[in-house]
Design goal:
The protein has 378 residues and is of the alpha+beta class. The protein is 58% helix and 11% strand.
Length: 378
């Protein structure tokens, strides 16, 4: 090796690469038969997947460790050293994507679209969306300052106990509440009032996702209205959901919406139980409790794009869980040898999701049939 080449190799070994501050790395996630990590540049919105070995290297690019030091850690973990050509390939890939400090931020051609906080509002007569606030993250930060104290155990635990008690009452008096719901649909005035309250509950549901994400250091990309006429709903997009600090923080963020729906019902439950009301209003409140509870629990069904699907995906430690599970189960049914290539963790997660989804679907159908039968026989 010439002196110049040796000098270049030594300079490369002493280089201390650093990722740009707004580059995010996810935990290990199942993706099909592979284990991957997601990397996202929040400036450009581009994201891509890498394997565990690449993530091992990239996660250590903190500006403090040299490539020599990172290489020694890699050799200790995987039993082999990287040569200069491989290092240059990795650095070129990161630099091209604008992920290294000192490199220009850019979105490669194959990257994802611009993030929601930079996207233009999409409007149409029948379907579209529009932002409601200019700075969704700042708005969510203000909401967190006002309501974040409710996330402390001293407040949250008693509230959750009340929610469980309310749902026990709803379950025990389900026959009565089903009749109330049937009667509600015959009273246009009370039905409009209940529908308005349920719509407001969905708005709080979305904001709760943002507030809890903010509590865990997340960012909110957009708050707005989305319509698929005749349905108009509010939405709140957490820009870095998959990159929150821990799996449980992500589960809490996904669960926050349904919990907010149920918390919203607590004062109406108190009125229904204890206030001296006329029969029509009492019945309407009973129907609101049943419909609101059903709305909250429906969001926990483990099918995409519902919150329950996000929760189950985190419990399984997987990305694109439904698609991966479907592919694996088709291989199993066909007795394809490729099914054996899936690691044990992936086989367990995909089989559990497939069987659990069938079980949940059967429960939902049974509940619908039982409710319809009850209404037709009273």
């Amino acid at each position: 090796m010439s002196a110049a080449a040796q000098g270049a190799a030594e300079a490369l070994a002493e280089y201390r690469p650093a990722l740009r501050p707004r580059v995010l790395l996810s935990d290990a996630l199942l993706h099909g038969a592979a284990t991957v990590h997601l990397i996202k540049d929040t400036d450009s919105g581009s994201s891509f997947r890498v394997g565990p070995k690449e993530h091992f290297l990239i996660a250590r690019m903190d500006g403090q460790r040299s490539l020599r030091e990172i290489g020694e850690e890699y050799a200790g973990e995987y039993g082999r050293r990287l040569d200069g050509a491989r290092w240059q390939q990795i650095l070129r890939m990161l630099g091209t994507r604008g992920l290294l400090a000192g490199a220009d931020a850019r979105a490669p051609a194959e990257s994802a679209p611009r993030p929601a906080d930079r996207a233009e509002p999409r409007r149409g007569v029948l379907r579209g969306s529009i932002r409601l606030v200019a700075d969704a993250d700042a708005t969510t930060a203000r909401l967190h300052r006002l309501t974040g104290f409710l996330l402390a155990p001293g407040w949250l635990v008693p509230l959750l106990v009340l929610v469980l008690a309310m749902e026990a009452v709803v379950a025990l008096r389900a026959d009565e509440l089903l009749i109330n719901a049937k009667e509600l649909f015959t009273n246009p005035v009370l039905l409009t009032g209940a529908a308005t309250l349920l719509w407001f509950s969905t708005a709080l549901h979305e904001l709760a996702h943002g507030v809890v994400a903010r509590h865990y250091g997340g960012t909110v990309a957009e708050i707005g209205l989305r319509w698929r006429l005749p349905v108009v709903i509010m939405y709140c997009t957490v820009g870095n959901y998959l990159y929150l600090g821990s799996r449980w923080q992500r589960i809490h963020t996904a669960l926050a919406g349904a919990v907010m729906n149920l918390l919203f019902l607590l004062p109406f439950c108190a009125l229904w139980l204890f206030a001296p009301l006329d029969a029509a209003t009492h019945g309407a409140l009973g129907a609101l409790l049943l419909l609101g509870s059903a709305q909250a629990l429906a969001m926990l069904v483990p099918f995409p794009p519902l919150d329950g699907y996000r929760i189950v995906s985190q419990l399984c430690g997987a990305t694109e869980l439904a698609a991966s599970a479907g592919t694996y189960l088709r291989l199993v049914v066909r007795r394809d040898p490729a099914a054996a290539d899936y690691p044990r963790r992936a086989r367990t997660a995909y089989l559990a999701y497939g069987l659990g989804s069938v079980f949940v679907l059967v429960l939902i159908l049974a509940a619908v049939v039982a409710g319809a039968h009850h209404l037709l026989t009273v």
